[in-house]
Amino acid sequence: MGYGSGTGGLWETYFTSDRDKYYENNNTLLDMYSEKPGGADSYEYKLGRVVDGGNQCGNGSNNENSCYNREHSVPKSFFGGQSAVPMANDGHFVIPTDYYVNNQRSNYPYGETNTPTFTSTNGSKLGTSNFPGFNGIVFEPINEFKGDLARMSLFFITRYEDKLASFTPYQSGGNPLDGTIDRGYKQWYINLLLKWAAQDPVSQKEIDRNNAVYLRQQNRNPFIDHPEWVNMIWTSTLTTKDIAAFDQKISVYPNPVRNGELHLSGYGLEQVKTVQIYTIDGRLIQTINQDLKTSKKITLSNRTKGTYILKTENQSTKFIVE
Question: Which residue range or ranges hold the Secretion system C-terminal sorting domain (predicted)?
């Protein structure tokens, strides 16, 4: 994806990936650094260039509510800057935010602080870390979006695992990258991201954004599709049974389902001959007697919008019908 405008650029992607359909529900820009989930936002941005009536920019004012630009949730200084592609252009972690708050965040890592020197209008904070393992300056988003940003950060080190050793020297104080490909981040940062991922589960906003970026980039954030993988990868308590379950995890696509048909993928499906569909509260609504060795396409009898659970003999996964 390109960094600038045009059909292949990040600016264009934001028209489908970052509209507010969840809080004000008015199709303005959904900016995680200014959105107030519990009330009216202090300001809102229209998507698009100024010449077209929008509020995107390269440079803004020394205050909030001037324009929005592109924020690398994993700072680009950690991996080589704007010219370091494809990282610099990756819509899965390059997000639209208020210009001024983006500048305040700078390239400080995410973290937690109780002594902020700056607080944005929605409560995002900059200050000295009080999270165990790090005492430098950090940027703390509001609770509503901590899981979103944690999963973006975990996506980054997974997607670019083969490049981690070549990135900006990880010895620099605020850089949470540890220079390895097995863990990716320093332990304090892993601990923070695991906490946030558990504290703020995957939302419909994240699912929709993942789908929108997929349509542009043809890749996905696996920790949105399978949030359970976070702890399976970054904890030291995995058993052989856990690893086997991870390797055989069943996947459903497309997700959300829109035409009543879904496809299954994963290991061990050739032995499956029965699939069951449950409502989220555990009520069995469909049993499908089908040899998946022959066909892995499932047709749903119930197409009511909602979240459902698909089960085989020893696997299960969630999917959404729209």
Answer: 252-320
